Amino acid sequence: MKNQARQSGRLTSASIIAAATLALVFSGCSGSIGDPGLPGTNGNPAGGGGGGGGGGGGIGSTTQPLCGQQSPAEIRRLTRAEYDNTLRDLLGITTNPASSFPPDEHVAGFEVGTTVTQLLAEKYVTTAEALTQSFDISSIVPCTPSAGDDTCARSFVQTMGTKLYRRPLEQAEVDRLMAVYTDGKNNGDFTQGIRWALQTMMQSPNFLYRVELGKDSSQPDEAPGSKRLTDHEIAQRLSYIIWNSAPDDALRAAADAGKLQSADEIEKEARRLLADPRARDSVRNFIAQWLHLSKLDAVTKDQSVYPAYSAALAKAMKEETLRFAEHVIFDGDGKLETLLTASYSFVNGDLAKLYGVQGVSGSELVRVDLDPAERAGILTHASVLSVNANSNQSSPVYRGHFVREQLLCNPPAPPPDNIVVKPPDLDPNLSTRERFDQHRTDPACSGCHQMMDPIGFGFEHYDGIGQYRTEEKPGVAVDASGEFFVTDDLDGKFYGAVEAAKKLSTSNQVRHCVVKQLFRYAFGRAETKADSCSLAQLDQAFADSGYNLRELFIALVRSEAFRYRAGGFKTFPGSK
What we know:
Blueprint (H helix, E strand, L loop, with lengths): L1 H7 L3 H15 L5 E2 L42 E2 L2 H12 L13 E3 L2 E3 L5 H17 L14 H17 L5 H16 L3 H13 L2 H4 E2 L4 E2 L10 E2 L2 H12 L6 H8 L6 H12 L2 H14 L20 H21 L4 H6 L2 E4 L1 H7 L10 E4 L12 H6 L8 H12 L24 H5 L1 H4 L4 H12 L13 E3 L2 E2 L3 E4 L7 E4 H10 L2 H16 L8 H13 L4 H10 L1 H4 E2 L3 E2 L6
Antiparallel strand pairs: 1-15, 2-5, 3-4, 6-7, 7-14, 8-9, 10-11, 12-13
């Protein structure tokens, strides 16, 4: 038996237990109850700092009253991207092992780790086993084992456990992990013991879940029943919002020193994180999810209608929008208006042909100026236009719905179950507007389509893959007249997507919607009535910055919604 264990190097009994626990306990994670006894949450957090206010005069400053009420927190597991990024940054693993995991759930339009299925539980186990077997253990052990193997192992457990659990370990946790190490060593050698301990950490809820329980608030200006996050919980929340990964050494050190309790201290670290290249990847992730760019991976087009469309072109479309957004936010003025109206972009040879740009060839994307009468910001990118179209024609419905849902945060209600949703058949004698006008004359459809179709008609200069056109077909000119209905500050007519983009870029409803979209992405949930005050403060901070998207991230992490949570929360499946 000992030889078999040594040969396989598998933590067999613990893996079986982990799979069963993950599948049975995690899948029942629901309901608001009191705080369970979790490691690292008893007593004062490490180095807990002072009150919740900074001194900067903005969100979270002592000159601004606290909102008081907060929404209950969600206990979130790592998404596939967070899992991969965490292993990359802490263990140097770059193979993206989570790509084989089941897809993440979507909450409020964004990817969030919620339930754990039996399949995912098994993936956690087999992935931990496979990675630790293929991993060069000597590259992460902080000492050289010799006669003092156990001392070296304990040092590894404490240092790596702190990184993976994203907080200091309690002594009881160290002892349990050392017991696993000893079992592995007795069945093999020092290296096998380390592998078994690492496997155990990688299968622990403390690694797989973002545990943010907080502690009871005690300051006189804090709302009764609210929970102020500990320094290490704030560090974790900060790094996963800005980096989509775990805290680095400097951020952990700030947490250890109790330097993450005021908004000013958090802002200092946030600006450091935003200057790191990992922030660009995380912001690209937000943009991709907000604009539904991942749909391009599965979009197909009728080759008889759009012979230029290919997987390579779709990939370039997606990268164009991500590169453009990254440039605006990190290298440009950072403003929402620029994101929605700029007439420059990044294209390769294939995209240049689609856009009618001369002098660009090859597969690399380069910055070019586009015709400002045809292109203005992300809404006129081929990526957004292709996703919001049918396989063989444009779609005023999809495009209008996209604007209402993603930019106005006011989508129409879904159609009744007995309504079959399909585009009207192509008719050589009718224009797109004429074919879709039947929606607004049918009483069963008119209410919702009146909110969408008139917006989408304004995008009719672009075909199903985003190519600009002045005629739908020979002799049938495009009519791109559009109109906004049932909005806060946009109601009225416009002509063409460029004019629509300019109107949208100065709309307070759009600005507020962008705030809400980032809020949903950051916190993995929809906003509630309890968030109204925090959202109002974010709106004001966004306005004060000139609607700078970089500064919106700073305002978000300074907010009470970032630093506090309500007393109730989704049950955390015990970790001891």
